[in-house]
Design a protein that fits this description.
single chain, Arc Repressor Mutant, subunit A
Length: 159
Amino acid sequence: MDDVRWLNEREARAWRALQFMQLRLEGELARQLAADSGLSYSDYVVLVAVTDRPDGRMRLFELAEVLGWEKSRLSHHVGRMADRGLVKKERCDSDRRGAFVVVTDRGRQEIEAAAPGHVTAVRRLFVDRLTSEQLDAIGDAAEIVLAAFDESPGGGTEE
């Protein structure tokens, strides 16, 4: 472990603040969704990803990549959402082993009903507390980190 590049004070401060901010935000947003809708936070992020597609469908493996979830976690969660009528799974004709996650009419209704309260909470907890410059800096930093995940399977961890 002699070659470990430990975080200096500045790096540790930024990293811990980001971790704790994300945990607190997810917790608060999950509470808001539970109070105002029948959706969990995980339901909401799945529905956002799928409904962002014009046809409301996404390959299961693509959804796992977008969310950063293990395939088994996603498969189980999508199964529970399908049982509740929020999404359905459709076989992929070009790849017999593959499947699409498709939003249902009920899923669209649920996310459309939940979105106003969710965005109000996002504004209250995050957006309205920051300047335009701070929002740009966070967006720029997040895009750089996310791009590293897209460039390599290890998230840019190889040296």
